Amino acid sequence: MSRPAAASLPTGLGAIARQNGITFGAAVQSGLLATDADYAAAFRREASMVVPEWEGKWGALQPTEGEFDTAPLDGILAWAKAQERLVRGHALVWHQHLPAWAEEALGQGPERATSIMQAHIRRVLAHTRASIRDWDVVNEVIADPPGSDTPQAGDLELRDSPFLRALGPAYIDEALRMARRADPLLRLTLNEYGIEEDTPAAAEKRRRLLALVRDLLSRGVPLDAVGLQGHLQLAKPFRPEPLTALITALRQAGLSVLITEMDIRETADAPQELAARDALVNERAYAFVSTALAAGVRTVFTWGLSDRYSWLTTDPSVAMPAPRTHRGLPLDASFRRNAMWEALRRAFAGA
Ligand code: XIL
C-alpha cells in the first residue's frame, strides 16, 4: 500500500506557520493522545510543537515528597519523539497545582522552601534535559490589579503565593538561577496572563511585568523569554497598540516573546447564530495574532486544539453558561476547523 501524497493531505496550521518562519503548537493531554484517535490525529495534523496541559505541573510530577511520577509527561515525550514534534515545558514554579505537602513545606521557613524548590527543579530538568529546551520556570507571578477578574491584594506587585510568603520576591530569582544551574542552555521563560487587552487592569499588569523583568535583568538574574498566555475575552476591548508596545519593550530588553496559551472566551450574551459568534472570534484572533507577529513574536501556542476538551468547556470558572460552550479554539467540539483556525491561517500566511 502506498501512502497518500503529501500534497493530498490537508495542510495543518503547524505547516502553514513553518512556511512563514513561525512555530505553531498547542497544549496536549497525555491520556487523550492514547485514547481518542480523532484527538491524536488533530495534533498530528495541526501542531508542530506541544506543551503538556497538566503533566509538567508540580502536583503531577511530585505528588509526594521525593517520589517523582513522570509517566504522564513521558507519554507526551514519547509521542512527540515518534511524531518528530518539539515540546515546551509548563510549569516549574506556580501557586496552583501544588500538592499539600509542598504548600506545607514552603511554610516551614526559607531553608526548607529553598531546598524543596531546588530538589524539584533539579530533578525535573535532569529528566527533561534531552527533550525539552524551553520551560515556563515561573508562572503567573504578577499580582492581579483591581479590576481584573480574579480578586487580588491590589497594592501587591507580586501575587501572594506560598513561594512569595516563604522567600519574598527573591523566590523568582532563585527559581531562575536554579533552572539555569540545572540545565545551562535551557530557555528560561516567565509566563503571565491578563496582560494583553486594552483594560486599565491589563495596563497596570503590563507596567508591573516590565518593571519586574527590567529589575531581574539589571541584577543579572537569568531570563530568556516572556510568555504571554493569551487567554482572551471578547468582553474586554483589544487594541493593537498596547500589545505592540509591550512586546517591543520586552524585545528591546533582549527577551524573546511567545504566545503560550491562546484561547478566546465569548461573552455570556453572545449572538445566537454560530456565524455571528464565529465572526467575532475570527476577528479577535486575527487582530491579536497578527499584532503579536508584527511585533516580533515567532511562536504561538493555543491552549488545546479542540473545544471538546478545552478548559473553557470543562472548567466552571471560565465556561460559558450552559448549554452553550465557548468556540474559542482552532477546532470545534467535533474537530472541525473553526473560526480561529481560519484567523490563525490568515495571520501566519501574512507574517
Ligand atoms: C489549566 C488547565 O487547562 C486545566 O485543565 C486545569 O484544571 C487548570 O489549569 N493558565 C495556566 C495553565 O498557566 O496551566 C492553566 O491550565 C490555564 C491558565
Can you walk through the features of this model?
InterPro entries: GH, GH10, GH10_dom. Keywords: Carbohydrate metabolism, Glycosidase, Hydrolase, Polysaccharide degradation, Signal, Xylan degradation. This is Beta-xylanase. It comes from Teichococcus aerophilus. Pfam families: Glyco_hydro_10. The protein is of the alpha/beta class and 351 residues long. It has one domain: Glycosidases (TIM Barrel, Alpha-Beta Barrel), CATH 3.20.20. Helix content is 44%, strand content 15%. The chain has 14 helices and nine strands. It has an eight-stranded parallel barrel with strand order 1-2-3-4-5-6-8-9, surrounded by six helices. Helix 1 packs parallel to helix 14 and helix 10 packs parallel to helix 11. The radius of gyration is 20 Å and the shape is globular. The N terminus is likely disordered. The protein binds (3S,4R)-3-hydroxy-2-oxopiperidin-4-yl beta-D-xylopyranoside.
Topology order in helix (H) and strand (E) letters? HEHHEHHEHHEHHEHEEHEHEHH
CATH architecture grouping:
Alpha-Beta Barrel
How far is it from the N-terminal to the C-terminal residue, by CA?
A: 38 Å
Mean pLDDT: 95
Number of helices: 14
Low-confidence runs of at least 5 consecutive residues = 1-9
Strand content: 15-25%
Portion of residues in helices?
40-55%
How many strands in all?
Answer: 9
- Under CATH, the homologous superfamily reads Glycosidases
Radius of gyration: 20 Å
* Strand ordering within the main sheet: 1-2-3-4-5-6-8-9
Q: List the ions, cofactors and other small molecules found in this model.
A: (3S,4R)-3-hydroxy-2-oxopiperidin-4-yl beta-D-xylopyranoside
Q: What structural category do the secondary elements indicate? A: alpha/beta
For the largest beta-sheet, the strand count, sense and barrel status come to: 8 strands, parallel, barrel
Number of structurally distinct domains? 1
CATH topology description = TIM Barrel
Shape: globular
